[in-house]
Design a protein that fits this description.
Strand content of chain B: over 45%
Oligomer: heterodimer
Radius of gyration of chain A: 17 Å
Number of helices of chain A: 0
Strand order of the largest sheet of chain B: 7-8-9-10-15-14-13-12
Order of helices and strands of chain A: EEEEEEEEEEEEEE
Number of strands of chain A: 14
Number of strands of chain B: 24
Largest interface: A-B, 31 and 26 residues
Number of helices of chain B: 3
Structural class of chain A: mainly beta
Chain lengths: 206, 422
């Protein structure tokens, strides 16, 4: 028996205790993702096929970058025109959640960010300059991605098959802002690119 | 229950050139944008069904020990060579060329290994931007990536050769302005291309270890110069000797000075033999048989010499302890170089007294040609010898200084004729 009977509504499998702090988890026993909504669990969709690939990151294995530690607890895989990348939802040393995107050694650590203005996707062409919270950013990448697989837990609802338009904006001192647009809504995160050669990972040999 | 992951899909191992049909290795990941055929020079777009973008025939592959497809560990991370780019630059009037190997690691992405005149370096893109302004003066400090580099040189690099999979779509002859700063064994470069500026962090690689890691038998010529980020690595023995010398040289000097001050001993007697040709004797007591005693003779010879025979006898036993012959000679004058002197009016003999008690020194002129001058005899005991300590201090200092000198020569070669002024 788990904790207070929190089980997968599809297969009855035990859900991890951390589901209470997450918005969504992928069931370890079946193909379902489970959404926690209004204190009730409901099946959200399928978790998709996640092929094993070499990575510095693995769910449940702590890594350090410079003086920070991160524990990945959720992994979402997205495909885009040229290939795929992983978005890890990780808990840092202070207990806060961060998104870590990993695409063939291109790694960025980002935190949720309030852009403070309303944007239109039409403004976000490659090379466009955008002012966010008083700082100038340049759009350096624009593409469309589709979620293909989910593992672990997440702070928001993600769905396999959902498509996102996304933009990378490059700002002062190497700062990065990522904008996502799906179902008519923007979400943003802000952070920095990190040097994979400085990451110390329990999964380094993978 | 499983861990929820499936086996990764098998990857394409090779692809046929869309221009000439030759089979080409496909080793890079999806972020590599171009593929250049080494048979026909076709540049293909990996992100657009290998569409032909350009073609450069008859390119000559530059010198280097590696080939596409070789794999090896750098910093404990597996890397595979997926592309080759030849570079040429004119720096201060001299032409230089080197070979960049595009590396791919599934976990760490894309980086470069460079073969330059027998040296190997690894470079990777960094987002650690310079913390200081644009002072690109020679040897000016440049703070970046947690280090302080020194500005080294600036040049324009041009692409002379292309092969394999690369992370951008190149053109033969592409020019990039490069500003390099160094902090051996690391380097930092600012590369200003036509539309973007990139920053690179470099590390000097041990040639033997790296070639072995990639399975290359080292048949290439040895490096004939010092690479800008090559660290100065003296031999283990020299380093150890220099460390010992650094500690021991000042210690030996101090000890020698103390011994010099304290080791002159105590004067037992001082007397003058007015006419050594008539002979004379000096009797004196010696108590300490553990330390040296010293007999110093002084004669006021000037542009002349005097030679003496001496016999030292223990009075109580009438045993001859030692027989000396020695003399003094002293010359002085002036020539075109100025005043000069040669020789000394004093000389000394040291011995360890075998017995305590009275000793007698008999002195006679040993040569009838000797100058006829009075001879002063001074006897001291508890004398300590310092010359060996000074010799030891000199040797220790030589070991210490020789390492510094070798480093200076090395730095001089690194910076050209301009010596490092640190």
């Amino acid at each position: 028996m788990g904790f207070d009977g929190m089980n997968c509504p599809n297969c009855g499998g035990e859900l991890p205790a951390t589901v209470l702090h997450a918005k969504m988890v992928a069931c370890e026993y079946c193909e379902s993702t489970v959404l926690l909504e209004d204190d009730a669990l409901k099946t959200a969709g399928t978790k998709g096929v996640m092929a094993r690939e070499p990575s510095l990151f693995a769910l449940g294995r702590t890594l350090t970058y410079r003086r920070e530690t991160f524990l990945p607890v959720g992994q979402a895989r997205f495909s885009y025109a040229q290939g795929w990348w992983d978005e890890f939802w990780a808990v840092d040393g202070g207990g806060d959640g961060v998104w870590v995107s990993v695409d063939e050694g291109e790694i960025a650590v980002e935190r949720p960010y309030d852009i403070g203005i309303s944007l239109s996707p039409a403004r976000l062409s490659l090379g466009a300059n955008i002012a966010l919270n008083g700082e100038q950013f340049t759009v350096t990448e624009a593409d469309r991605a589709t979620c293909t697989a989910l593992r672990g837990e997440f702070p928001e609802a993600l769905f396999v098959g959902q498509t996102y338009d996304y933009w990378h904006l490059f700002g002062p001192l190497g700062r990065l802002v990522t904008l996502e647009y799906s179902d008519g809504e923007f979400a943003a995160s802000e952070g920095v690119w990190v040097d994979p050669y400085l990451i110390r990972s329990e999964n380094a040999g993978a | 229950m499983t861990d929820g992951f499936e086996q990764g899909a098998a990857r394409l191992a090779s692809i046929n050139c869309t221009s000439c049909g030759s089979p080409l290795p496909a080793l890079a990941g999806h972020r590599a944008k171009s593929l250049i055929c080494n048979y026909c020079g076709a540049v293909m777009d990996r992100h657009n069904e290998y569409r032909l973008l350009a073609q450069y025939r008859d390119m000559q592959r530059p010198e280097g020990p590696f080939q596409i497809g070789m794999s090896g560990d750098l910093f404990g991370i597996a890397h595979t060579i997926v592309g080759i780019v030849g570079i040429n630059a004119v720096i201060e009037g001299y032409g230089y060329s080197w070979t960049n190997y595009q590396l791919y690691s599934p976990t760490h992405g894309y980086s470069w290994m460079t073969w330059s005149d027998g040296h190997l370096t690894h470079s990777r893109k960094t987002r650690d931007l310079p913390e200081t302004g644009g002072n690109f003066a020679y040897k000016a400090p440049l703070a970046a990536a947690g280090r302080v580099f020194k500005m080294y040189e600036e040049y324009v690099a041009r692409v002379t050769y292309l092969e394999g999979e690369l992370t951008w779509v190149p053109e033969l002859g592409d020019a990039t302005r490069v500003i390099e700063a160094i902090d051996p064994p690391y380097g930092y470069a600012v590369a200003l291309g036509g539309t973007e500026t990139e920053f690179e962090f470099s590390t000097y690689l041990d040639r033997a270890e790296t070639l072995a890691a990639f399975g290359v038998d080292d048949q290439m010529p040895r490096a004939g110069n010092v690479h800008p980020i090559q660290p100065f690595i003296p031999g283990t023995l020299h380093t150890a000797l220099a460390k010992v010398g650094k500690i021991f040289a000042p210690l030996a000097v101090v000890i020698a000075l103390v011994v010099l001050t304290m080791g002159q001993g105590q004067k037992i007697t001082e007397t003058t033999i007015q006419d050594p040709f008539a002979g004379g004797a000096v009797t004196f007591p010696l108590q300490n048989t553990a330390r040296l005693a010293e007999i110093r003779i002084t004669a006021n010879v000037y542009n002349s010499w005097s030679w003496y025979d001496m016999e030292l006898t223990h009075v109580d036993t009438d045993e001859t302890i030692a027989e000396f012959d020695g003399g003094v000679e002293y010359y002085a004058g002036r020539d075109s170089d100025g005043a000069w002197t040669e020789g000394s009016q004093s000389t000394s003999f040291r011995f360890r007294p075998p017995f305590a008690g009275a000793y007698r020194l008999n002195v006679t002129a040993g040569d009838p040609q000797s100058a006829r001058v009075p001879l002063r005899v001074e006897v001291r005991e508890n004398v300590m010898v310092t010359r060996y300590l000074f010799l030891l201090a000199g040797f220790a200092m030589l070991m210490w200084v020789s390492l510094w000198w070798r480093r200076s020569v090395f730095e001089g070669r690194r910076w050209g004729s301009d010596e490092d002024d640190d």
